[in-house]
Amino acid sequence: MSEILIRNARTVLTMDDAGTELADTDILLRDGVIAAIGPRLETTGEIVDARHCVVTPGLVNTHHHLYQGLTKAVPGGQDALLFGWLQTLYPIWQRFGPEEFYVSAQIGLAELALSGCTLSSDHLYLYPNGARLDDSIAAAQDLGVRFHATRGSMSIGVSKGGLPPDSLVENEAAILEDCIRVIDTFHDPSEGAMVRVGVAPCSPFSVSRELMRDSAILARDKGVMMHTHLAENDEDVAYSLEKFGCRPGQYAEELGWTGPDVWHAHCVKLDGQEIDLFAATRTGVAHCPCSNCRLGSGIAPVRAMLDAGVPVGLGVDGSASNDMASLIGEARQAMLLQRVQNGADAMSARAALRVATRGGADVLGRHDCGQVVVGLRADLALWDVSGLESAGSWDPAALLLAGPQKVRHLFVEGRQVVRDGRITTVDIDAVLTRHKEMARTLAGLG
């Protein structure tokens, strides 16, 4: 039996149904689960002093492309819109291999962990030079974070009217076959699972209608979730109207891509009917505010989605369209953008943090995570509010208004992945050194 006692937390934001907040409280972690919450708890295990800390559930990242960590701030794509940005980066990505995928994933997940993230999804849709989804999964397992990998795909190259180069697309039969392989090998449907797998064609403009439909059939036969990009910007909507004769939400519905086992990235350009459709079907959305700003895509109608009952979580998106992977920063950006669009009372700091925690867990179907509640998984972020960032704050629990940008401690399944602001599970300095070497080689710097 393994125990850790988090002692005398200044504030605990539970994110339970009632939005309970607790002061001067202990939390006992036992064998990966929250075993008890209350004052003056006892343990024979390790004790972590939390008297200066706000405790939240671990943040949940619902959309990422971890491999892109080697292509931050690429000059040719810094000021491009989505389609032009992709065309700049595809030739670089096709030079990647298994080691690039593994090291990029470790760096990206470490960056997320330091920003409070305990559970991350990943959308990997290209596999050059022998790379496989297995590479990213191995990186997550070694780092010790909870991981929802998705087997992405592209099947329509530039010669057939798609965006990606032909060298990066795959045969559709082979795509489906590999989806079955990775699900059978890695997917764990049980409570407390550290790895789950989903099926994720890249986008409606890089796969065929048949692959979208067949992927949905396969996912439901296997009992796994489905993910793709949808309605990201005006170009995306125009493509759908021209090629499919309908809006993106209608296209998704026609092909079986709505329901509680589906979540779509971005959805910046959903209209009122599409929002109602997603609410009625409990189709999830991964809101990626920083990436949407970076690419000039617009402000997603998150307030309208939440009011309608659409499940919404946050995503940092790939590092090539965000240039960083801070989930706590993403939550602040989401809060501010909804205020810009709808007024200062449109989204509170606590509401945005709820989207970043319980909201993301619900979108990923992880009802065992996202709350600080007895019996749920011991995924916790401890934020030290005694430092400079919180100085002068009258409400330290309003972390997104005035609070630290990195955690002091992070627990995943009761294991301490971050201690005193440092990754504990891998030699992150050695990984970073290798990552820098790879980035220099890709940039032609030796």
TrEMBL record:
Alphabetized Pfam families for the sequence: Amidohydro_1
Main enzyme class: hydrolase
CDD domains (UniProt xref): ATZ_TRZ_like
GO molecular function terms listed in the Swiss-Prot or TrEMBL record: 8-oxoguanine deaminase activity
Residue ranges constituting the Amidohydrolase-related domain according to the UniProt record: 54-417
EC code(s) of this entry: 3.5.4.32
Cited SUPFAM superfamilies: Composite domain of metallo-dependent hydrolases, Metallo-dependent hydrolases
Keywords: Hydrolase
Family: Belongs to the metallo-dependent hydrolases superfamily. ATZ/TRZ family.
Protein name as catalogued: 8-oxoguanine deaminase
Source organism (scientific name): Salipiger mangrovisoli
